[in-house]
Amino acid sequence: MKVVVKKFIKHSVIINMRNILLILIMGLNIAWSQMISYHSDSTGEIMGYLSKPKTNTALPGIILIHEWWGLNQDIKNKADEFAKKGYVALAVDLYQGKSTTSPKEARNLAGRVRSNIGEAFENLESALDFLKSLDNVNKNKLASVGWCFGGGWSYQVAKNNLDVKASIIYYGRFNPEDDLSIMRANILGHFAEKDRGIKIDNVKEFQVKLNTLNGEHEIYIYPNTMHGFASRPNENNNAFDKAASDEAWRRTIVFLEKTFSKY
Questions:
Q1: 46/210 Cα distance (integer angstroms)
Q2: pTM for this entry
Q3: Residue 149 near residue 110, CB atoms below 8 Å
Q4: HSE-up of 200 (CA within 13 Å, CB side)?
Q5: Pick from 225, 231, 258: nearest CA to 65
Q6: What is the pLDDT along the chain (263 residues), one digit of tens a residue?
Q7: DSSP labels for 126-190?
Q8: DSSP strand E in 186-246: where?
């Protein structure tokens, strides 16, 4: 009887130790996340969604810029995924608390932002400043990423040299004729072959222009995909393509790691 008890206790200790190790290992990937506020001179307190790993180590920071739907659960989930990969992720809110599933309302909300570009830029700069103020953010390793409407703004972050080392664009608008002389960020672009709003010829022209600049830039066109292939604002997004979305995500993480490895 005593032998059985000893064996049971020993076995139990081993199981408990294994469980503890698993918890510790998994804990490194668990994101701490919540809505936070930061300050903008023109609009005062701005809300955003902050997600970060549970560690005090200085990590790269990234701002996420939402689609024209607003700061919804899909964007928050993406912030959590970045945090699980070791980034302090701040999803900004250019709509000041509003979000929608209505294309008509989304168009109006996006239009209001575009009519006050200065305020939008201040929001994005304030978001980057907030990340820099955090003890667990490496101030030399900042990036931006955006989807659709937000992809265009991620491009603007790079174009206007808002102190990021990398900007990722998911099917966001750009002008291949823009002056990019002050841009210092590396650009990664994900575009859909069947995007009705962004011409593939323009994407290729954009790629040619980027190749003439300093830095390391990558542009990918995903075959047989539509605008929004990596977004899930709701379960009814027929454009969502899991294979393309997964590949774009893999490329995004590799691109960021490669960029930040030099700083």
A1: 33
A2: 0.88
A3: yes
A4: 12
A5: 231
A6: 332 333 333 333 333 444 433 334 344 565 689 999 998 777 789 999 999 998 889 999 999 999 999 999 999 999 999 999 999 999 999 999 999 999 999 999 999 999 999 999 999 999 999 999 999 999 999 999 999 999 999 999 999 999 999 999 999 999 999 999 999 999 999 999 999 999 999 999 999 999 999 999 999 999 999 999 999 877 778 999 999 999 999 999 999 999 999 99
A7: HHHHHHHHSTTEEEEEEEEEEETHHHHHHHHHHHTT-S-SEEEEES----TTS--TT--SEEEEE
A8: 186-192, 218-222
Three-class SS of residue 109?
A: helix
Cβ 141 vs Cβ 165: under 8 Å:
yes
Helix (H) or strand (E) holding 201: helix 200-210
From residue 130, give the alpha-carbon distance in Å to each of 10, 28, 44, 78: 50, 23, 14, 19
d(CA 78, CA 74): 6
| Gap between the Cα atoms of 17 and 112, Å rounded | 56
By C-alpha distance, which of 172, 168, 220 is closest to 193?
Answer: 220
Domains annotated for the chain, with CATH where assigned, are 30-260 (3.40.50.1820)
